[in-house]
User: Fold this.
Amino acid sequence: MTYSIVARDAATGELGVAVQSQAFNTGAVVPWARPGVGAIATQSFTDPRYGWRGLELLAEGRAPRDALDELLAVDEQRDFRQVGFLDAAGRTAQHTGAACVPAAGSAAGDGWAAQGNMLAAEAWHAMGAAFEATAGTLAQRLMTALDAAEAEGGDWRGRGGAGILVVPATGDPWERVVDLRVEEGDDSLVALRRLLHRAETYRAAHDAEHRADVGRARGLPPTYVTWLALLDAANDGDVERGRAVLAELEAEHPGWRDLARTLAKHPEGPPLADILGE
Assistant:
């Protein structure tokens, strides 16, 4: 029915979950994560209480095994559930109920836990091996783990929804590094990888010193690259270049100046006042 992996990046402290299932909209219900707290996958007759309540227990300092056992103890349908817990230290706990659909199981390693049910093969081992062998961002490694499960045969009913959720090592509960999902489709993993590449391209451009150069090199939409060039000019203090870029944007649509005005007033916005000249 579903396969998923929860994992921690030892270098950055990021925490994440990735999932694929034949079920529609699975990326909205299986993955849960909170910065500095943990990541949880709740699947197989999914009960979201394992997600939100599990994170609350981890935030209180409970070990993953203790937190998961507490929730299982009051769940009358525990035998139908499959859950994976991971805390901010990389400790894990898992549960696969005795009544789960056959071909169900799990595996765990250093900073990761993978689980699956209704699969063509024991793909959870392949997910862990792929995660450990892959370099790159946590999101990229999670994506590779999903691909590895699919290469083993995946869900024998076919493909459907998929999602990746990654949160930073620290931050407010709502902060996200990556939060992507594809609701359905035989090519959901292909679509998810394409979205991930796009998301990381935008992130790289915004994190770079000269955003427009990165955006242009990585194929972002031309108008968006022009907007990044305006921000670069503002941050460089190049008023003349900034006004030329703003004029180019306004020629496409006058709303770009309105956007620049709004950002100029924001306390954390770019220094656009001189370029606007208003």
